[in-house]
Each structure stands twice: as structure tokens, then as C-alpha cells.
Amino acid sequence: MVLTGRRFWYLMAGYAASACAVLSVPAEAGNMPVPMTVASVAQMNPSASQPVFSEISATAMDLMRAGRAGDALAILEPVSGQLAMLTKAKAGRVTCQQGQRGKQLLDADLCQALYLRAFAFTELGRRADAVEALEQLTVLSPEYPRYFVELAYAYRVGGDKVKALATYQQAASLAEKPALREENKRYHAAALRGVGYLLIEKGDLAGAEAAYRASLADDPGSKIAIKELSFIARKRADGEQKGG
Questions:
Q1: How far apart are CA 100 and CA 235, in angstroms?
Q2: Signal sequence span per UniProt (predicted)?
Q3: pLDDT digits 0-9 by tens, 126-143
Q4: Is this model's pTM higher than 0.85 or not?
Q5: Residues of 123-146 as b/e, b for ≥16 C-beta within 10 angstroms?
Q6: Residue 159 and residue 152: Cα distance in Å, rounded?
Q7: CATH of region 161-244
Q8: Which residues pair with 94 in a beta bridge?
Q9: In this predicted model, what pLDDT tens digit does every residue of 167-213 receive, in sequence order?
Q10: Could you tell me if 176 and 189 are in contact, meaning their C-beta atoms sit under 8 angstroms apart?
């Protein structure tokens, strides 16, 4: 199925934001790592055929938009191998996010390709692979709430509600950090909606209502939050009628 409308917008928002994640976290000038580019990778392994990550990401985006997630994944998979090589060479000390002391900053295009790979797994229904890919992204971007929101969703649809709730709460906490509070509003709202959804399932209507109302502060037009708050009101009314 071709990605259109809101679904493609969701992909585009994450794709654009994944590039911002490399640049947006403040760091002290003396501790700013130098980005690891395709050229630097080539110097580490001159005999290997090096992909141009920006071209890979652009092609994968076109394929995803056309509903060809499988084809997109086929060209994105080598990126995972490339990351494994980098991680091994740097003993795991690589990151997609500035401000991570002692770690080498990866090329933004590589990080975008990794994001698209995780999205492709989700589109293909490969839940375990999607979880693994998103866990990898949260390690590479430990203060970027978007990846945590998506990982929480992957846990949720995979049936691990305990991990899902904890990860949504972690995403909300990350999104509340003052330095990036304004630009992370949509992720804060999404995380709180996820918390609300899971609290309803646990029967905690008061907690769920509080989460959904808090989400509206950042996303006042959310039809999901408004609909769920109406559902909670009906559940309460039904309970009062039965109790009476």
C-alpha cells in the first residue's frame, strides 16, 4: 500500500527530525565531537565499498512513499552492517547525538538511514526486528524522545505493556527538558497519549485522564486525546449507573 496522507507525514517528520537529533542537543564547545563522515569510514577500511548514506536515504524514502518497504529495506540493510563495523572499530563509542562525551558523532545521513530501516521493519510487520532497530537508535540518541516514543509503541503492539509504559514515561521525561521543550512538544504529547492508553487498559481511569489532559497542553487539537477522554467519561458514567 502506498504511503499517503498522515502516515507519510509521520515518516517525513521523523526523517527530518532524525537529522536534527544529531545537531540539536547542546554541548560544551570543548567537548563537541567531530562528525564521523563517509570519508572517515573509508579511511578506516579503504578496501570496502562505501555507501553514500544520503543517496541511500533518499532512494529508500522514495521507495517507502511508493509502498515498497521491502525494496527500501533491501538497500538499507547494509547500513546496519556499516554501523556494526563502526561500532566494532570504535568499541561501541559512537552516537547520533551531540553532547555525548567520549563518543564519536556519526554522520547525520547514516543516522537517517538507520531511522528509515526501523520504519521499514514496522511497515513490514517485523515487530522483533523493529524493536531491535529502535532500541539501537535509542542507544545512539539517548536524549531524543522521538525514538523512545516509537520504541514504546513497538513494545506495545508486541504485547510488552510493562516496557511500553516505562518507555513512554521515559520519552515524556526527555521531552520535558527545558533546552528543547518547545521543539519536542509533539513527542511529549504522543508519549502522554501512550501512557494514557496503557493506563486505561490497567483500569486506572484517573491516571489516564490526567495523561490525556496533559497531552492536550502540547497538542490541543488531538482527536485521539479528545476521543479517549470521552471514552473515559462514558466508562465512569456506566460505572456510576451500575453502582447506583
A1: 46
A2: 1-29
A3: 999 999 999 999 999 999
A4: no
A5: beeeeebbbebbbbbbebbbbbbb
A6: 11
A7: 1.25.40
A8: 104
A9: 999 999 999 998 888 889 999 999 999 999 999 999 999 999 999 99
A10: no
Q: Which helix (H) or strand (E) holds 202?
A: helix 185-202
Return the closest-CA partner of residue 133 out of 111, 153, 115: 115
Concatenated DSSP letters of 29-83: GGGPPPPB-HHHHHHH-TTS----HHHHHHHHHHHHHTT-HHHHHHHHHHHHHHH
State which H helix or E strand residue 105 sits in. Answer: strand 104-105
pLDDT at position 34, please?
Answer: 39
Domain ranges of the chain: 1-143, 161-244
Over residues 20-58, the pLDDT tens digits come to 443 333 333 333 333 333 344 334 343 344 457 888 888
